[in-house]
Design a protein that fits this description.
The chain is of the alpha/beta class. It is about 40% helix and about 20% strand. The chain has two domains: about 190 residues, Rossmann fold (3-Layer(aba) Sandwich); about 160 residues, 3-Layer(aba) Sandwich (Rossmann fold). The longest helix has 16 residues.
Length: about 375
Protein backbone atom coordinates (compact mmCIF):
# COMPACT_ATOMS: atom_id res chain seq x y z
CA UNK A 1 0.00 0.00 0.00
CA UNK A 2 1.18 3.53 -0.79
CA UNK A 3 0.39 6.12 1.90
CA UNK A 4 0.96 9.87 1.62
CA UNK A 5 1.07 11.53 5.04
CA UNK A 6 0.43 15.27 5.18
CA UNK A 7 1.35 16.44 8.66
CA UNK A 8 1.26 19.78 10.45
CA UNK A 9 4.45 18.89 12.35
CA UNK A 10 7.44 16.61 11.86
CA UNK A 11 11.07 16.21 12.87
CA UNK A 12 13.00 18.07 14.19
CA UNK A 13 9.90 19.31 16.08
CA UNK A 14 9.16 17.21 19.16
CA UNK A 15 5.48 16.84 20.02
CA UNK A 16 2.64 14.34 19.92
CA UNK A 17 1.86 14.81 16.22
CA UNK A 18 5.49 14.32 15.22
CA UNK A 19 5.87 11.25 17.42
CA UNK A 20 2.76 9.59 16.01
CA UNK A 21 3.71 10.29 12.38
CA UNK A 22 7.25 9.03 13.01
CA UNK A 23 5.94 5.78 14.47
CA UNK A 24 3.46 5.32 11.62
CA UNK A 25 6.17 5.86 8.98
CA UNK A 26 8.59 3.45 10.66
CA UNK A 27 6.04 0.68 11.12
CA UNK A 28 4.60 1.08 7.62
CA UNK A 29 8.09 0.54 6.24
CA UNK A 30 8.66 -2.54 8.37
CA UNK A 31 5.40 -4.01 7.10
CA UNK A 32 6.42 -3.49 3.45
CA UNK A 33 4.26 -0.46 2.70
CA UNK A 34 5.54 2.71 1.02
CA UNK A 35 5.12 6.11 2.67
CA UNK A 36 5.65 9.72 1.64
CA UNK A 37 5.64 12.54 4.21
CA UNK A 38 4.71 16.15 3.39
CA UNK A 39 5.69 18.44 6.26
CA UNK A 40 6.54 22.06 7.09
CA UNK A 41 10.28 22.70 6.91
CA UNK A 42 13.11 22.94 7.53
CA UNK A 43 14.15 19.44 8.56
CA UNK A 44 15.33 16.04 7.31
CA UNK A 45 14.20 15.04 3.82
CA UNK A 46 14.16 11.32 4.58
CA UNK A 47 13.00 9.21 7.49
CA UNK A 48 13.10 5.42 7.84
CA UNK A 49 13.33 5.04 4.05
CA UNK A 50 10.43 7.42 3.34
CA UNK A 51 10.94 10.67 1.42
CA UNK A 52 9.98 13.83 3.29
CA UNK A 53 8.83 16.74 1.11
CA UNK A 54 9.38 20.06 2.87
CA UNK A 55 7.05 22.99 2.18
CA UNK A 56 6.90 26.65 3.16
CA UNK A 57 6.42 27.44 6.84
CA UNK A 58 6.52 30.21 9.41
CA UNK A 59 7.08 30.36 13.16
CA UNK A 60 3.98 30.56 15.31
CA UNK A 61 3.63 34.08 16.84
CA UNK A 62 4.85 33.91 20.44
CA UNK A 63 6.39 30.46 19.81
CA UNK A 64 8.77 30.97 16.90
CA UNK A 65 10.46 27.59 17.23
CA UNK A 66 7.13 25.91 16.38
CA UNK A 67 6.77 25.91 12.58
CA UNK A 68 3.36 25.92 10.91
CA UNK A 69 2.89 24.96 7.27
CA UNK A 70 1.65 27.44 4.68
CA UNK A 71 -0.42 26.77 1.54
CA UNK A 72 2.01 25.48 -1.06
CA UNK A 73 1.50 24.04 -4.55
CA UNK A 74 4.26 21.55 -3.74
CA UNK A 75 1.75 19.60 -1.62
CA UNK A 76 -0.44 18.63 -4.57
CA UNK A 77 2.56 18.01 -6.82
CA UNK A 78 4.03 15.64 -4.24
CA UNK A 79 0.78 13.73 -3.77
CA UNK A 80 0.07 13.49 -7.50
CA UNK A 81 3.61 12.32 -8.24
CA UNK A 82 3.56 9.68 -5.50
CA UNK A 83 0.16 8.27 -6.60
CA UNK A 84 -0.88 7.03 -3.14
CA UNK A 85 -3.74 4.66 -2.36
CA UNK A 86 -4.71 6.79 0.65
CA UNK A 87 -3.80 10.22 2.04
CA UNK A 88 -3.29 10.36 5.81
CA UNK A 89 -3.96 13.84 7.23
CA UNK A 90 -2.16 14.21 10.56
CA UNK A 91 -3.95 16.79 12.73
CA UNK A 92 -5.13 18.82 9.71
CA UNK A 93 -5.35 22.58 10.12
CA UNK A 94 -3.48 24.59 7.45
CA UNK A 95 -1.18 22.24 5.57
CA UNK A 96 -3.72 19.47 6.06
CA UNK A 97 -6.37 21.60 4.39
CA UNK A 98 -4.17 21.84 1.29
CA UNK A 99 -3.57 18.09 1.40
CA UNK A 100 -7.30 17.42 1.76
CA UNK A 101 -8.16 19.64 -1.19
CA UNK A 102 -5.50 17.97 -3.34
CA UNK A 103 -6.65 14.46 -2.41
CA UNK A 104 -10.28 15.30 -3.22
CA UNK A 105 -9.27 16.81 -6.54
CA UNK A 106 -7.27 13.69 -7.39
CA UNK A 107 -10.00 11.32 -6.19
CA UNK A 108 -7.89 9.77 -3.42
CA UNK A 109 -9.58 8.71 -0.14
CA UNK A 110 -8.44 10.42 3.06
CA UNK A 111 -8.04 9.38 6.69
CA UNK A 112 -7.91 12.45 8.96
CA UNK A 113 -6.46 11.99 12.44
CA UNK A 114 -7.80 14.43 15.03
CA UNK A 115 -4.92 15.05 17.40
CA UNK A 116 -4.85 18.71 18.46
CA UNK A 117 -7.56 20.67 20.24
CA UNK A 118 -6.73 23.84 18.31
CA UNK A 119 -9.66 25.75 19.83
CA UNK A 120 -8.39 24.93 23.33
CA UNK A 121 -4.90 25.95 22.21
CA UNK A 122 -6.27 29.34 21.08
CA UNK A 123 -8.05 29.87 24.40
CA UNK A 124 -4.87 29.21 26.38
CA UNK A 125 -3.06 31.88 24.34
CA UNK A 126 -6.02 34.27 24.79
CA UNK A 127 -6.60 34.42 21.05
CA UNK A 128 -10.12 35.36 20.05
CA UNK A 129 -10.14 32.60 17.48
CA UNK A 130 -11.39 29.54 19.33
CA UNK A 131 -14.89 29.50 17.79
CA UNK A 132 -13.87 30.10 14.14
CA UNK A 133 -10.96 27.69 14.59
CA UNK A 134 -13.27 24.94 15.87
CA UNK A 135 -15.58 25.55 12.90
CA UNK A 136 -12.66 25.32 10.48
CA UNK A 137 -11.36 22.08 12.00
CA UNK A 138 -14.88 20.62 11.93
CA UNK A 139 -15.25 21.56 8.27
CA UNK A 140 -12.00 19.80 7.36
CA UNK A 141 -12.99 16.60 9.14
CA UNK A 142 -16.47 16.62 7.63
CA UNK A 143 -14.85 16.61 4.19
CA UNK A 144 -12.46 13.73 4.96
CA UNK A 145 -13.44 10.18 4.02
CA UNK A 146 -12.88 8.96 7.58
CA UNK A 147 -11.84 10.65 10.83
CA UNK A 148 -9.95 8.96 13.66
CA UNK A 149 -10.35 10.20 17.24
CA UNK A 150 -7.82 9.27 19.94
CA UNK A 151 -10.24 9.26 22.89
CA UNK A 152 -13.91 9.22 23.81
CA UNK A 153 -13.71 12.91 24.70
CA UNK A 154 -12.35 13.75 21.24
CA UNK A 155 -14.97 11.52 19.66
CA UNK A 156 -17.69 13.55 21.39
CA UNK A 157 -16.06 16.83 20.26
CA UNK A 158 -16.10 15.68 16.65
CA UNK A 159 -19.68 14.47 16.86
CA UNK A 160 -20.69 17.89 18.22
CA UNK A 161 -19.02 19.43 15.14
CA UNK A 162 -21.22 17.29 12.91
CA UNK A 163 -18.34 15.11 11.70
CA UNK A 164 -19.56 11.80 10.23
CA UNK A 165 -17.75 8.45 10.05
CA UNK A 166 -15.66 8.92 13.22
CA UNK A 167 -13.73 5.95 14.61
CA UNK A 168 -11.61 5.51 17.73
CA UNK A 169 -7.90 5.00 17.06
CA UNK A 170 -5.69 5.31 20.12
CA UNK A 171 -1.92 5.72 20.37
CA UNK A 172 0.76 3.16 20.98
CA UNK A 173 3.66 3.42 23.38
CA UNK A 174 7.31 2.40 22.85
CA UNK A 175 7.44 -0.50 25.30
CA UNK A 176 11.00 -1.31 24.22
CA UNK A 177 12.11 2.16 25.32
CA UNK A 178 10.01 3.05 28.38
CA UNK A 179 10.13 0.78 31.40
CA UNK A 180 10.73 0.67 35.18
CA UNK A 181 14.18 -0.81 34.58
CA UNK A 182 15.38 2.57 33.35
CA UNK A 183 15.17 4.07 36.86
CA UNK A 184 18.48 5.73 37.78
CA UNK A 185 19.54 6.49 41.35
CA UNK A 186 22.49 8.45 39.97
CA UNK A 187 20.18 10.76 38.03
CA UNK A 188 17.92 11.21 41.05
CA UNK A 189 20.94 12.22 43.12
CA UNK A 190 21.51 15.15 40.74
CA UNK A 191 17.92 16.30 41.30
CA UNK A 192 17.55 15.89 45.05
CA UNK A 193 19.32 16.98 48.21
CA UNK A 194 18.21 13.91 50.15
CA UNK A 195 17.08 10.40 49.27
CA UNK A 196 13.95 11.07 51.33
CA UNK A 197 12.67 13.66 48.84
CA UNK A 198 9.81 12.56 46.60
CA UNK A 199 10.44 13.57 42.98
CA UNK A 200 7.32 14.96 41.34
CA UNK A 201 7.80 15.69 37.67
CA UNK A 202 6.24 17.00 34.49
CA UNK A 203 7.41 15.91 31.03
CA UNK A 204 6.45 17.79 27.88
CA UNK A 205 6.41 21.20 26.25
CA UNK A 206 6.70 24.06 28.71
CA UNK A 207 3.93 25.97 27.00
CA UNK A 208 0.72 27.74 27.98
CA UNK A 209 -1.57 25.15 26.37
CA UNK A 210 -0.15 22.56 28.79
CA UNK A 211 -1.09 24.81 31.75
CA UNK A 212 2.35 24.26 33.26
CA UNK A 213 2.03 27.26 35.57
CA UNK A 214 -0.19 25.06 37.73
CA UNK A 215 2.99 23.27 38.79
CA UNK A 216 3.40 26.24 41.13
CA UNK A 217 0.52 24.82 43.18
CA UNK A 218 2.84 21.96 44.20
CA UNK A 219 5.83 24.03 45.28
CA UNK A 220 4.79 24.23 48.94
CA UNK A 221 4.27 20.50 49.52
CA UNK A 222 6.83 19.33 52.13
CA UNK A 223 9.37 16.76 50.98
CA UNK A 224 8.74 17.31 47.27
CA UNK A 225 11.35 18.05 44.62
CA UNK A 226 9.81 19.36 41.39
CA UNK A 227 11.44 18.36 38.10
CA UNK A 228 10.45 19.69 34.67
CA UNK A 229 11.62 17.74 31.62
CA UNK A 230 11.21 19.69 28.38
CA UNK A 231 11.47 23.18 27.01
CA UNK A 232 9.27 25.95 25.67
CA UNK A 233 8.17 29.56 26.07
CA UNK A 234 6.98 29.11 29.67
CA UNK A 235 10.35 27.93 30.96
CA UNK A 236 11.48 31.43 31.98
CA UNK A 237 8.33 32.02 34.05
CA UNK A 238 8.66 28.64 35.74
CA UNK A 239 12.33 29.15 36.59
CA UNK A 240 11.54 32.53 38.17
CA UNK A 241 8.58 31.27 40.21
CA UNK A 242 9.91 27.80 41.09
CA UNK A 243 13.51 28.44 42.14
CA UNK A 244 13.75 25.06 43.89
CA UNK A 245 12.72 23.05 40.81
CA UNK A 246 15.13 21.24 38.50
CA UNK A 247 14.94 21.87 34.75
CA UNK A 248 16.51 19.29 32.43
CA UNK A 249 15.73 20.89 29.07
CA UNK A 250 14.53 18.76 26.19
CA UNK A 251 15.46 15.08 26.33
CA UNK A 252 14.92 12.24 23.90
CA UNK A 253 15.49 8.52 23.49
CA UNK A 254 17.10 6.69 26.39
CA UNK A 255 17.76 9.93 28.28
CA UNK A 256 14.03 10.69 28.24
CA UNK A 257 13.11 7.14 29.25
CA UNK A 258 15.57 7.28 32.15
CA UNK A 259 14.16 10.61 33.33
CA UNK A 260 10.59 9.26 33.20
CA UNK A 261 11.42 6.13 35.19
CA UNK A 262 13.38 8.13 37.78
CA UNK A 263 10.33 10.15 38.83
CA UNK A 264 8.24 9.12 41.83
CA UNK A 265 5.07 10.87 40.62
CA UNK A 266 4.18 12.20 37.16
CA UNK A 267 1.85 15.20 36.90
CA UNK A 268 0.10 16.51 33.81
CA UNK A 269 -1.87 19.70 34.60
CA UNK A 270 -3.30 20.41 31.11
CA UNK A 271 -6.99 19.87 30.39
CA UNK A 272 -7.05 20.30 26.58
CA UNK A 273 -5.36 17.02 25.68
CA UNK A 274 -6.98 14.93 22.97
CA UNK A 275 -4.99 11.90 24.18
CA UNK A 276 -1.93 12.76 26.34
CA UNK A 277 0.85 10.45 25.25
CA UNK A 278 3.09 11.35 28.20
CA UNK A 279 0.56 9.75 30.56
CA UNK A 280 1.05 6.43 28.73
CA UNK A 281 4.82 6.84 28.76
CA UNK A 282 4.80 7.48 32.52
CA UNK A 283 2.59 4.43 33.05
CA UNK A 284 4.91 2.29 30.92
CA UNK A 285 7.81 3.62 33.03
CA UNK A 286 6.21 2.36 36.24
CA UNK A 287 5.41 5.85 37.56
CA UNK A 288 2.03 6.76 39.13
CA UNK A 289 0.16 9.50 37.27
CA UNK A 290 -1.86 12.52 38.39
CA UNK A 291 -3.77 14.10 35.48
CA UNK A 292 -6.70 16.41 34.87
CA UNK A 293 -10.13 14.78 34.75
CA UNK A 294 -10.68 16.14 31.24
CA UNK A 295 -9.95 15.10 27.67
CA UNK A 296 -7.74 12.14 26.80
CA UNK A 297 -6.56 11.26 30.34
CA UNK A 298 -10.12 10.15 31.17
CA UNK A 299 -9.50 7.14 28.90
CA UNK A 300 -6.02 6.43 30.28
CA UNK A 301 -6.46 6.84 34.04
CA UNK A 302 -8.95 4.91 36.11
CA UNK A 303 -9.11 7.13 39.19
CA UNK A 304 -7.80 5.35 42.27
CA UNK A 305 -6.79 2.24 40.29
CA UNK A 306 -4.30 3.17 37.54
CA UNK A 307 -3.64 6.74 38.64
CA UNK A 308 -5.36 9.77 40.10
CA UNK A 309 -7.51 12.40 38.40
CA UNK A 310 -7.89 15.91 39.75
CA UNK A 311 -10.77 18.31 39.11
CA UNK A 312 -9.44 21.18 36.97
CA UNK A 313 -11.87 23.73 38.42
CA UNK A 314 -11.06 22.91 42.06
CA UNK A 315 -7.84 24.75 43.02
CA UNK A 316 -7.24 22.37 45.93
CA UNK A 317 -7.70 19.17 43.90
CA UNK A 318 -4.27 18.95 42.23
CA UNK A 319 -2.14 19.50 45.34
CA UNK A 320 -4.45 17.21 47.34
CA UNK A 321 -3.93 14.34 44.88
CA UNK A 322 -0.16 14.83 44.84
CA UNK A 323 0.00 15.08 48.63
CA UNK A 324 -1.82 11.74 48.94
CA UNK A 325 0.78 10.04 46.74
CA UNK A 326 3.73 11.76 48.38
CA UNK A 327 2.57 10.51 51.79
CA UNK A 328 1.94 6.89 50.75
CA UNK A 329 4.66 4.91 48.96
CA UNK A 330 2.43 1.82 48.97
CA UNK A 331 -0.29 3.69 47.08
CA UNK A 332 2.27 4.89 44.56
CA UNK A 333 3.38 1.31 43.96
CA UNK A 334 -0.15 -0.08 43.61
CA UNK A 335 -1.23 2.56 41.11
CA UNK A 336 1.98 2.21 39.11
CA UNK A 337 1.74 -1.60 38.94
CA UNK A 338 -1.89 -1.54 37.81
CA UNK A 339 -1.17 1.09 35.14
CA UNK A 340 1.87 -0.81 33.86
CA UNK A 341 -0.28 -3.93 33.43
CA UNK A 342 -2.89 -1.92 31.49
CA UNK A 343 -0.40 -0.32 29.10
CA UNK A 344 1.61 -3.48 28.40
CA UNK A 345 -0.47 -4.43 25.35
CA UNK A 346 -0.39 -1.04 23.60
CA UNK A 347 2.60 -1.49 21.31
CA UNK A 348 3.02 0.74 18.27
CA UNK A 349 3.19 -2.28 15.97
CA UNK A 350 -0.28 -3.32 17.10
CA UNK A 351 -1.69 0.21 16.80
CA UNK A 352 -0.24 0.85 13.31
CA UNK A 353 -1.40 -2.59 12.19
CA UNK A 354 -4.90 -1.58 13.25
CA UNK A 355 -4.54 1.69 11.32
CA UNK A 356 -3.70 -0.19 8.12
CA UNK A 357 -6.09 -3.12 8.45
CA UNK A 358 -9.16 -1.28 9.71
CA UNK A 359 -8.86 2.32 8.60
CA UNK A 360 -6.69 2.60 5.48
CA UNK A 361 -8.32 -0.47 3.97
CA UNK A 362 -11.70 0.77 5.13
CA UNK A 363 -11.52 3.75 2.75
CA UNK A 364 -9.78 2.17 -0.24
CA UNK A 365 -11.48 2.51 -3.59
CA UNK A 366 -12.95 -0.72 -5.02
CA UNK A 367 -10.26 -2.66 -6.82
CA UNK A 368 -7.33 -1.11 -4.92
CA UNK A 369 -4.91 -3.81 -3.68
CA UNK A 370 -5.17 -4.09 0.10
CA UNK A 371 -1.72 -5.60 0.68
CA UNK A 372 1.75 -4.22 0.12
Amino acid sequence: MRVAIVTESFLPQVNGVTNTVRQVVEHLGRAGHEALVVAPGPGPTEHAGARVVRVRSMGLPGYRSFQIGLPDAAVERAIEGFRPDVVHLASPILLGAVGLRAARRLGIPTVAVYQTDVAGFARQYRLRADIPTARWVGRLHRRATRTLAPSRSSYAQLEAMGVPNVHLWRRGVSLDLFGPGRRSHALRATWTESSAEVVVGYVGRLAAEKQVRRLGELAGIPGVRLVAVGDGPERGWLERHLPGARFTGMLGGEELATAFASLDVFVHPGEAETFCQTVQEAQASGVPVVAAAAGGPLDLVANGRTGMLFHPRDPASLPRAVEALVADAGLRRRLADAALAEVSGRSWSHVVGQLVDEHYRGVLRPGTPAVA
